[in-house]
Amino acid sequence: MSAEAAVALPTLDWAQARSRVYEAGRAAMPEPVDLPLAEADGQTLAAPLSTLTDLPAFPTSSVDGWAVRGAGPWRIVGRVLAGGTPPPLTGDDTAVEIATGAMLPDGAAGVLRIEESTRTAEGLVAGTLRPAPEWRAPGEEARAGEELLPAGTPVDPGVIGLAASCGYDTLPVRRAPRAALIIFGDELLTSGRPGAGRVRDSLGPAVPGWLRRYGCAITATDLVGPVADTLEAHVDALRRGLAEADLVCTTGGTMNGPVDHLHPALRELGAEYVVNTVAVRPGFPMLLARVVGADGRARFVAGLPGNPQSAIVATVSLVAPLLAGLQGRAMPTLPQVTLAEPVTGRGDHTHLALVRVDPARNTAHPVRHVGSAMLRGLAQADGFAVIAPGTRGEPGDRVPVVPLPLLPGERVLGGTA
User: Fold this and answer.
1) Same domain, residue pair 213 and 319
2) Alpha-carbon span 30 to 295, nearest angstrom
3) pTM of the model
4) If you compute the radius of gyration of the chain from its CA atoms, what whole number of angstroms results?
5) Number of structural domains, the chain?
6) CATH of the domain at 268
7) Is 309 exposed, middle or buried (0-12, 13-18, 19+ CB in 10 A)?
8) DSSP assignment of 246-257, as one string?
9) How much helix, strand and coil, in percent to the nearest 5, is found in the chain?
10) Which of 11, 150, 294, 371 has a Cα at 20 to 30 A from 45?
11) Residues 41-54: tens digit of each pLDDT
12) Which of 58, 62, 132, 57 is nearest to 98 (CA)?
């Protein structure tokens, strides 16, 4: 289907649009690669992470103390440090000094904590073993071959540490998609104060941060614009972006005004729309198109509206599920919150209403200053409450919320839908 034909696509329901772009991303997933552990942070597991050995692989002391055999008092016959393989304890009432993490000798009945031991006048070790073992048994954390994490898990330092403890040197991963951002609109200012009919570009500085939070790789060199308001400049910018990136996000030009050249530029590039407009407010004139390169690999163009809040609505609606699909991650689930105040509906469109969430009560409170061109409300919000078409939100209603993208370690809103 050509981009020209795709213009006639019907406006999609918001939930349908999310599902469609996610499946488009899944269909275009790149082949996995093996990366050294030190390079895997920020990527996505392409296969389940299973243990290569029992965890722990051998019995280890969990404290500094004495590994003992017999009822005691115990005669000291040696010392065991981490990293060594100790000889067995064979004599009754014998002990070896043992360090935390060291391998427990065969024949040891238990470990006596160093701080709970005493020495007799004869130099023997005395004390009472605790009822609970002070050592870790092989396989206590996991058995060899046990699946610890499924494919699609984002790789973070915790995952890397777990993989190392299992004996991995490399991980099979799907690389973070590379993104580019093209700012359309040569009337925009890129520095200084707005005035004299010109507004400051707020999306160029902001959108890369959202994309990184969704798992993209994007640098300052991947930001282009503002691009001149000509078809030739639009086509050139898109072609250059698609040559390097898996996803090119554009801002502005998603309508059909006198200087909106995005649709004609997509036709020029032979693009195929996945989604062309979504029944959601704000953010209605958003799109996602697919461009197949000479190498046969699909790249994507996400058309974000020029109004700042609408552009972020398009990012959470289309870009987030697309990137999840491209990385082999699960479709983002939507937490549930309870509305603390009424939220208006938007007729036959889904309304994404900016809210602040009280984490203690899991209640959502609408914020002010939420016009399509405003960013004040967005800067104070945790996400968008989803008000279904033909409804309005009433206090006490449980509704889904689209969280704004988080950095690792930041709190997650609510419970899953």
Assistant:
1) yes
2) 13
3) 0.86
4) 29
5) 4
6) 3.40.980.10
7) buried
8) SEEEEES--S-S
9) 20, 30, 45
10) 294
11) 999 999 999 999 99
12) 62
